[in-house]
Write a structure and sequence with these properties.
The protein is mainly alpha-helical and 127 residues long. The chain is built from 6 helices and 3 strands; from the N terminus they run ββααααβαα. 51% of the residues lie in helices and 9% in strands. Helix 1 packs across helix 4 and helix 3 crosses helix 4. The radius of gyration is 27 Å and the shape is extended.
Length: 127
């Protein structure tokens, strides 16, 4: 049975090719964290984070961190936890007869009457 790691808004599945620490770091990258932020969070050196992420990218056959996250999602190693929220919204949309989108008014431009001030009126205003 595969166990899971939840980090922030992401869930990772162990036993699919990545070491537990590599998976934790990949989940942190998926949240948008930098190597320094990940190192501070886990209490390790930034070089350790870079090395673990490099190992994970090698195992997945990619060269960039964004590609690593995409490949992990494609292989279902990681997945966002918000999928449950999306399912609830979809079910709500099917049940409720009220539209979920906001109705916009037509784009009517408001025209104001502008006329140039006469010299006498302008002097009264500033005088």
């Amino acid at each position: 049975m595969d166990s899971t790691i939840i980090n922030g808004g992401w869930k990772g599945n162990l036993g699919q090719g990545l070491a537990p620490r590599e998976l934790q770091f990949v989940l942190s990258v998926a949240q948008g964290m930098t190597a320094k932020e990940i190192a501070q969070m886990f209490g390790v050196a930034p070089g350790t984070v870079v090395k673990r992420l490099s190992n994970a990218m090698f195992k997945l056959g990619v060269n960039r961190q964004t590609a690593m996250v995409a490949e992990c999602m494609r292989r279902r190693i990681i997945s966002p936890v918000c999928v449950v929220l999306a399912a609830v919204i979809a079910i709500h949309a099917m049940i409720d007869d009220q539209p979920m989108r906001r109705e916009r008014r037509s784009s009517e431009r408001r025209m104001t009457d502008m006329r140039p001030a006469r010299r006498a009126e302008a002097l009264e205003l500033y005088g």
